[in-house]
Amino acid sequence: MTERSAAGSAARVDTYSAAGAADPTSLPEQQSGPPAGESAVAELELRPALEAVLMVVDEPASEELLARVLQRPRRAISGALRELAAEYTAQGRGFELREVAGGWRFYSRVAYADAVEGFVLDGQHARLTQAALETLAVVAYRQPVSRSRVSAVRGVNCDGVMRTLLQRGLVAEAGTEPETGAILYATTHYFLERMGLRGLDELPDLAPFLPEAEAVEGESQEGVPSFDVDDDSDEPTRPAG
């Protein structure tokens, strides 16, 4: 190495040292830009990406979640979802994109319910019984409500039906009644999803047709949960004697 080149190298090192930086030859290589996975998602066309994600969700996906996953502003997500929903309706597709229970999900269109029902059931009877539907209605409009009050409103013992609703995830325990210690029940998020509702405020106005809770008399029998065999049947209530 000549004296001139050695002096030049020393000058460069002195310059970096004076600036508080390390020798550039010892600095590691730095990657530029976001990680490959993130940049790939952000560069995807938004509407097809939304369709792909919504095809695999198990429950309605919120706009916040979709915005985070697809790395887009929520406003862009919201606009694209509504555009897709309107497009499916205009094209008369057999499915629709609906906002339900705080999120978005694909559903088969009501007009084709008979075809879907025939495929899903295929001779099986998987519907809720009339007794279960009536019991679910009482819980929905009177929640939180104890099992004994539901039985009093319907005039029959609802233990078996309530267990069926619990097993299907349509109702859940929601605390206890202060006066009696009875277990209280309320509808679930899954109930809203299955009913196609965004909230309980969208329930039809049927409450005026039900008796007031204060008018329902009878002692609670909810101190200990019932574990009888669930036959999903109603039994007439009997006065305590």
UniProtKB/TrEMBL annotation:
| Entries under Gene3D superfamilies matching the protein | Winged helix-like DNA-binding domain superfamily/Winged helix DNA-binding domain
Q: Which Pfam families match?
A: SMC_ScpB
Answer yes or no on keyword NADP: no
Question: What is the top-level taxon of the source organism?
Answer: Bacteria
Any GO BP:
cell division
Q: Which UniProt keywords apply?
A: Cell cycle, Cell division, Chromosome partition, Cytoplasm
Does this entry carry the keyword Iron?
no
Question: Which InterPro entries does this chain map to?
Answer: ScpB_csome_segregation, WH-like_DNA-bd_sf, WH_DNA-bd_sf
Stretches for region Disordered:
1-40, 214-241
> This protein is called what?
SMC-Scp complex subunit ScpB
Species whose genome carries this gene = Streptomyces tardus
**Source gene?**
scpB
